[in-house]
Structure formats: structure tokens, C-alpha cells
Design brief:
Ferric Hydroxamate Uptake Protein, Chain A, domain 1, about 5% helix, 32-stranded mixed sheet, globular, mainly beta, 4 helices, 3 domains, Maltoporin, Chain A
Length: about 800
């Protein structure tokens, strides 16, 4: 609890939480009146979170009080004296909406404004339409929001491409996503867990189907604390117009890249039905080299390898669901998705081996075929009910997910001459991992507003996971061509995980300040059993996860945020598997059944300045992780590299991210970010303490040009500095992406062309430096990857809004 208490002391010293001058005077008349409503956008009818609500008195237009909307777009202002008022609702990028003639009397004490629709701001000048587009990145109390529509270079790609070159995110050349240098994050889709995990989910979802991505580096106590780096929540596109509508995308690109997706909607005032689908074939042909030295007790071995990979990723999925407004207070939503995610990599590797203790040189070719794939199901049901007009709300959800997959590695070693012509067979083996996983989640949330300023939220979440997994190795006898199972390397295991959690949050908001305190308690239990063996392993823990979030509006459009959260990263079942898994004849890895979760404390202080034509933000963070997982490399008695995982590390990361969006003119917009951070790893092995650290930086410059009304050009340049790892480093990487897009037929048809890695500079280089292994691995990917994306909309286009001025309206007189 010490970090939590320190955070509170820090927050109270930073902010003045005294009562605002906008508070209603104590000597006011009887205060029983309530004004409430919901803010939605006109385009799509989506709720607008953090919209500002200001209440003025009549006839003098005195500002009485204000508030902001919640995640569902709702607001409530209570304890109002009898009298006449008018209300102004606004949000950045939208036209203001005025609700006049609000009269609170002894007979009418609750005024329900219903749905207040805000329209996106546009200006019409002499037949020229200028539309205010969304910022690429928006900041809210507890998260950053990446708007998919602003990322032209992601068209035809996946969410991985959408997240490239955004604050806090790093993407390597193989599409693996890191959040502030860590891969320990949780991915949600529309706020619900997925059967897949991490980068696998992000590679599966087409960017064309995404509305926005929320990056929550310090989630509140209501969120699952799994993932030390935070949460990435992918919000899918939905259409809420009262009609039948559709969005269809297709793309084709160099190096065998094809994809397509569709989104169908049918909506009435009572019910919304939708059907989505997508499929793709994403090919790549990287050329890799690796130079390595292995050091034994009395000798060493040098290995030089080259490989030309043929890779393809083949995802496809379907999703259907409904939203049913049962009545004015309750709703029921259901979704079901089914899909496949697969990756196939053929790796022909040429190897040259030399030894320090004898003059022979070995030449061989290894043909490897890695085939990963599986089918998944996700089903969810959500019931939401408003218990009364004061804002009491109860929400419960149930999620069921399955995964049935396999990971097969076919490795065929062939001894050759110096020209790599085969002389005789070496070792041919096939290793296969299988997973059959079922997961269940039950969640209940209750929200109770205490008054117009304070509210509490209580919740329960239960997660259950059951997995039946297996590993099997088969060896081939080249004389007889017969395959046989290796019993020493064939095992099955059962895995069960149970997590029971309760949480509570307390929220307070004044006219310029918001505070949220939270505490979550979790009981964690796991059990691992090796079938047909006597081995079984179990562990259980109870942990507390405090959180704190503060946001305050300052003068001159400044906003400051501060937050703290405690996070956890629990090992997956294959990290616990206590037997060897072979990659090839050089490498094997073994899990640790006694591996325990790693815990992180995360602190942030962020400042943002809003301008009329953009914003500037500075984010600072500090994160320390204890009991961190460490992959250790060593040589076994046969000379094979052994990879083990232990709780050995202490990891410290801190830094600052400076970013800004500026509209220099109506036709040019610049988004830039610079991320400077330190990454430190301290490893404790017995009495030995090893420390590795570096100062790293990432830079992004994204410039969008808008010509005429419908033609856009976007240039993205990025630079990632060298980085330290626990056993080596990564070299610098930089590149340029170019995109061009044009709208046709009143923006119903959009054609977009993107060229990624335009100058072939995005090379991936990893250096390993340990007492027993020194190696340099370089991956050279295809360049440039050129994609043509075509998008067509049916009944789903924006309309022009009227001219809006900055002058505040003034109303005189009563009802």
C-alpha cells in the first residue's frame, strides 16, 4: 500500500481540491431539482464521453455549475434550486448544442433532456466545405484514444499497422507490438476479452473495421489488472442509423497480400442487428542472416546462417450480434464470433560451422516448416439497467471463449558439401503442441451516484480457465522411413486457473477537477497436472491492486492528469510446462512450474495544452516491475542452447513522451511525437547482480495534406533508437510510409494506395551478448509493400453542419 499512499500525498500536494466558485451557494432556495440527459454524436448515434455540460441561470446568464458525461454519454446535475435555466453541451470537434427553457418548480423537479445530439463541426464558405477532422490522438481521464480514420497508412492492414508510429507503442518488423517497451499487456475487443492474446489479436483484426483504439496504461480498479504495461482496447465500427447500411473493403498488394471485410447493419429504434466478416492472405519473404559464437569449457563453435523465409498469415472470422432496447431503462446485447488465425513459415537455412579445437568445417541445410493455427469462438451477453432517474445503474455480462489450436514444427537437417549439395541425411523430427482451452468470465457492476459530485462503483469479476494441452515429438528413421513417437518428449497436461475479484471505486468531480480512487482485491489459484505422471503443481495468492486517477483543468486550456496503478502479469501454461520443447537441433526450451506472477507499480503525470488548431501534450511515466520474468540462455551437456524462465529480474522504465497535433492550414495537418525513456534491467542470480540499462528514443512525424475536398496525401517518417534487452540489445530502425487517398460519389467510395518502408531502411537487428552465446541476427523484409484498398459505404456518410460561431448565446426572459 505504500506506493498508493505516496500517490495520494503527491496528488493532494499538486492540486487544490477546495470548493469551486461555481458551486451553488448554501443560502440558495430549496435544492431538489435535477437536470439529466445523454450526449450522442449525430453521425452514428454514439455516446460522447467527457463532453462538457454547462448550466446557466436566466435571465442574467450567470454560470451556475457544470459537469462532464460518463462513458455512456450520460450526465446528471442535482441539488438545483427552483428557477429558470438554459444548458450548453459541447465537445471538441463538434458544434455546441443549446437547450433553452429549463424550468424547475415544485411540480417539476426532474428535467430529462433526453438525447442531446451534437453534430461534427463543418464550415461552408462560398461553396467550399471545410470539415474539422479528428485528431490522430485524443486524451481522456484514464486513456489515450487512437482514431482509426486518421491513419491512412493502415488501410488494408491490421490493427498492428494502425498502432505503428503512435505514442507509447513500438512495433517490430515481425508485427509484434510492445506497450512502452513491454509485451505484457492485455487486449480487449469492445471491452471484452478475446480467445487470442497480445499481438495475435492485433494481427487478426483488419484496420478497416476499427473505429478507434484505446490505450490504457494505468487502468482503474474496475479493469482486470492482468498485463503489467496496461490494456489495449479495440473498438470496432458500428452503424446506428435507422436503416440498412453496409461498409465493404477490399485490398490487394505486392508480395501476395490480399484482404477483404464487410460490415452489415440493420437498425430500428428498438433493435440493432449486425453481421461482420473478414478474411486475408498476407505474405512476406524476408531474408535473414545470423552470426553466432558458442563458448564451451575448453572450445568454441562459430555458426554462420542465411535463410530466405516464405511467410503467410491467413486469418478469417465472422461476427454477428444484436442490441435490444427493451424499454427506456434497460437493454440487452449479445455477440457471437467464430474465426481462424493461422501462420505458416517455410525456412530453408544454410549453415556453416567451424570449431576452435579441430579444423573440420560442417555444411548443412535445414528445412523447417512452422505451422501455427487454430479456431476460436467468442460469445457474450450483456444486460444493462438504469434503476432510477438518479443515475443508479446495474450491468452484468457473461463471456465464453474457446481456442482449439496446434503449433507444428517440421525440422529436416541435411548434411551437405560446401556448395550445399546434399550428401546424407541428418536428423528429421516433427514436434507438435496442441491446445484446447475454455474460458469463462462473469462480471457485475453497480454504480451509485451519491449526489451531483460524488459516486461509487462496486463490482465483481470471476475468471475461470481450463486447458488440455499436449506436446509430442516424432523421429524418422531414414533407413526405413518409419516415424516413431519419442516417449521421453511426449506429454500431456491439464491446467486450471481461477481468479475471483471484487473492486470498488470512488469518484468525485468539481467544475474543473475529477478524482477517482479505486481498490481491487483478487484471489488467484492455479493447478497444473502432467497426465500419466505423478507430477502436479499448484499455487495460490491474494493481492490488492490500488489505483488513483486525477484530472484538473487549468487556465489557458491546460489540463493536467496524474495516475497510479498496480498491475500483474501471470505466467501462461506453457511457461510452466516442466519438460523440454525443441525448436531445432541447436535450441530447446523448458518451462518452470514454480514460476510466480510478476508485479508492477506504474506512475504517470501528464500535461496537455489545447489550441484552436491542435494540442500539445507531455506524458511522463515511471514503472518498476518486481519478480520479472527472465529468459536465461545456457548450454546443456550436449552443447544445445537451453532457454529457461525464472523470476530473476527487476525492471525499471521511466521517460517522457512529447506529442502534438497542429493544423497549419485548412489543407495541411502535422502530428509529431518524441519518446525519450530509460530501460533498466537488474538480474539477481545467487550472489551475482548484473545490471543492463540504456537511454532510448522513438520519433514520429506524420504529415497529412488535403487537396481540394476529396484528395489526401499522408507521409509518415519514424525513427527507433537502439534499445537494451535483458541479454543484449536491438539496433536502431527507421523508415518512411507514403499514402494517397481519394473519395468519390459523395464520399461513398474511397480508394487508397499505401507504400510501406519506401526506402528499404526498416531492418531488424538483434544482438545477444552472454558469457556462453554471442550472436547477431538481421532480418531484411520486403520493400516497399504497396497496397491498394477500396472501400464502399451504403447509407453511412456524413452530412454538412451549419456555420458555428465562437460567441456564447445569451437568453433573456423566462419560460
Amino acid at each position: 500500500m505504500k506506493p498508493f499512499l505516496l500517490s495520494i500525498v503527491f496528488a493532494l500536494s499538486l492540486f487544490d481540491v477546495s470548493a469551486s466558485h461555481l458551486s451553488i451557494p448554501e443560502n440558495s432556495a430549496e435544492r431538489k431539482g435535477v437536470v439529466q440527459g445523454v450526449i450522442e454524436s449525430k453521425n452514428g448515434g454514439k455516446p460522447i464521453e467527457y463532453a462538457s455540460i454547462l448550466l446557466y441561470s436566466l435571465p442574467d446568464s450567470t454560470l451556475i455549475t457544470g459537469t462532464v458525461t460518463g462513458s455512456d454519454g450520460s450526465f446528471r446535475i442535482g441539488k438545483l434550486p427552483q428557477g429558470s435555466y438554459f444548458l450548453i453541451a459541447y465537445f471538441m470537434g463538434f458544434n455546441k448544442q443549446v437547450i433553452p427553457n429549463i424550468e424547475i418548480s415544485s411540480r417539476t423537479q426532474v428535467i430529462n433532456c433526453g438525447k442531446i445530439i451534437l453534430e461534427e463541426a463543418t464550415i461552408s464558405l462560398a461553396g467550399v466545405e471545410i470539415t474539422q477532422e479528428k485528431n490522430p490522438v485524443e486524451y481522456q481521464l484514464d486513456k489515450k484514444v487512437i482514431n482509426a480514420s486518421t491513419k491512412m497508412d493502415s488501410k488494408g492492414g491490421s490493427v498492428v499497422n494502425l498502432l505503428e508510429n503512435t505514442p507509447s507503442i513500438q512495433v517490430d518488423i515481425e508485427g509484434n507490438v510492445s506497450l512502452r517497451g513491454s509485451t505484457n499487456y492485455t487486449v480487449f475487443v469492445d471491452g471484452k476479452p478475446s480467445s487470442l492474446s497480445g499481438s495475435e489479436v492485433l494481427k487478426q483484426i483488419p484496420a478497416n473495421m476499427v473505429d478507434k483504439v484505446e490505450i490504457i496504461t494505468n487502468p482503474s480498479a474496475k479493469y482486470d489488472p492482468q498485463g503489467t504495461a496496461g490494456i489495449i482496447n479495440v473498438i470496432m465500427k458500428k452503424n446506428y442509423q435507422n436503416s440498412t447500411s453496409a461498409l465493404i473493403n477490399t485490398s490487394i498488394g505486392t508480395y501476395n497480400n490480399y484482404s477483404g471485410d464487410f460490415n452489415l447493419n440493420y437498425r430500428t429504434p428498438k433493435i440493432n442487428l449486425f453481421l461482420n466478416g473478414n478474411g486475408g492472405y498476407n505474405g512476406s519473404y524476408p531474408y535473414n542472416t545470423m552470426e553466432s559464437d558458442l563458448f564451451y569449457t575448453d572450445s568454441s563453435r562459430h555458426t554462420s546462417q542465411t535463410e530466405s523465409r516464405k511467410q503467410r498469415v491467413t486469418p478469417y472470422s465472422f461476427q454477428t450480434g444484436f442490441d435490444w432496447n427493451i424499454n427506456s431503462k434497460s437493454s440487452l446485447s449479445g455477440e457471437y464470433s467464430w474465426g481462424f488465425w493461422g501462420m505458416n513459415i517455410y525456412i530453408p537455412t544454410k549453415t556453416i560451422e567451424t570449431f576452435s579445437n579441430h579444423p573440420d568445417t560442417n555444411y548443412n541445410v535445414t528445412n523447417s516448416l512452422l505451422d501455427i493455427g487454430g479456431y476460436y469462438n467468442n460469445a457474450s451477453l450483456v444486460y444493462n439497467v438504469n434503476l432510477d432517474t438518479t443515475g443508479q445503474n446495474f450491468k452484468t455480462s457473461f463471456v465464453f471463449a474457446t481456442w482449439n489450436g496446434r503449433n507444428s514444427n517440421d525440422v529436416n537437417d541435411l548434411a551437405t558439401l560446401s556448395d550445399f549439395e546434399t550428401t546424407h541425411y541428418g536428423i528429421h523430427h516433427i514436434s507438435e503442441r496442441t491446445d484446447n482451452t475454455k474460458a469463462y468470465q462473469l462480471k457485475m457492476d453497480y454504480t451509485l451516484p451519491l449526489n451531483s459530485k460524488y459516486s461509487i462503483e462496486l463490482g465483481y469479476q470471476g475468471n475461470f480457465k481450463h486447458a488440455l494441452s499436449g506436446y509430442e515429438m516424432q523421429l524418422q528413421d531414414y533407413d526405413t522411413q518409419v516415424w516413431s513417437i519419442d516417449p521421453e518428449n511426449s506429454h500431456q497436461m491439464k491446467y486450471f486457473q481461477n481468479i475471483q475479484a471484487v473492486y470498488g471505486t470512488f469518484s468525485a468531480q468539481w467544475d474543473k477537477m475529477q478524482v477517482m480512487l479505486g481498490l481491487r482485491g483478487e484471489y488467484y489459484c492455479r493447478y497444473l497436472e502432467i497426465i500419466d505422471e505423478t507430477d502436479h503443481f499448484s499455487a495460490q495468492q491474494f493481492n490488492l491492486f490500488p489505483t488513483l486517477h486525477i484530472s484538473r483543468d487549468l487556465k489557458n486550456n491546460f489540463q493536467i492528469q496524474a495516475s497510479y496503478s498496480r498491475r500483474v502479469n501471470r505466467p501462461r501454461e506453457w511457461n510452466l510446462f516442466p519438460y523440454s520443447i525443441y525448436s531445432d537441433k541447436y535450441i530447446r526450451q523448458i518451462g518452470n512450474p514454480n514460476l510466480m506472477p510478476e508485479f508492477a507499480n506504474s506512475y504517470e503525470v501528464n500535461v496537455m495544452k489545447q489550441f484552436k488548431k491542435g494540442f500539445l501534450s507531455l506524458e511522463t511515466f515511471y514503472r518498476n516491475t518486481n519478480n520479472a520474468f527472465s529468459q536465461e540462455m545456457s548450454l546443456d551437456s550436449t552443447g544445445i542452447i537451453l532457454i529457461e524462465v525464472e523470476n530473476l529480474n527487476k525492471v525499471y522504465a521511466y521517460g517522457a513522451e512529447l506529442s502534438g497535433n497542429f493544423r497549419l492550414a485548412d489543407w495541411v495537418n502535422i502530428y509529431a511525437s518524441a519518446n525519450l525513456y530509460s530501460y533498466n534491467v537488474t538480474q539477481v542470480i545467487g550472489t551475482n547482480i548484473n545490471t543492463n540499462n540504456s537511454i532510448n528514443s522513438d520519433w514520429v512525424l506524420n504529415t497529412t495534406f488535403k487537396f481540394w475536398k476529396t484528395f489526401r496525401v499522408q507521409v509518415v517518417g519514424f525513427y527507433n533508437s537502439p534499445k537494451v534487452t535483458s541479454q543484449g540489445s536491438e539496433a536502431q530502425m527507421y523508415g518512411v510510409n507514403l499514402s494517397m487517398g481519394k473519395d468519390f460519389f459523395n464520399k461513398k467510395l474511397t480508394i487508397n494506395i499505401t507504400a510501406r518502408d519506401l526506402f528499404n531502411t526498416a531492418k531488424y537487428k538483434i544482438i545477444t551478448d552472454t558469457p556462453q552465446l554471442q550472436s547477431t541476427f538481421i532480418m531484411n523484409n520486403n520493400y516497399p509493400v504497396i497496397l491498394l484498398n477500396i472501400s464502399y459505404k451504403i447509407n453511412n456518410y456524413k452530412r454538412r453542419a451549419p456555420i458555428e460561431t465562437d460567441k456564447e448565446p445569451v437568453f433573456e426572459g423566462g419560460a
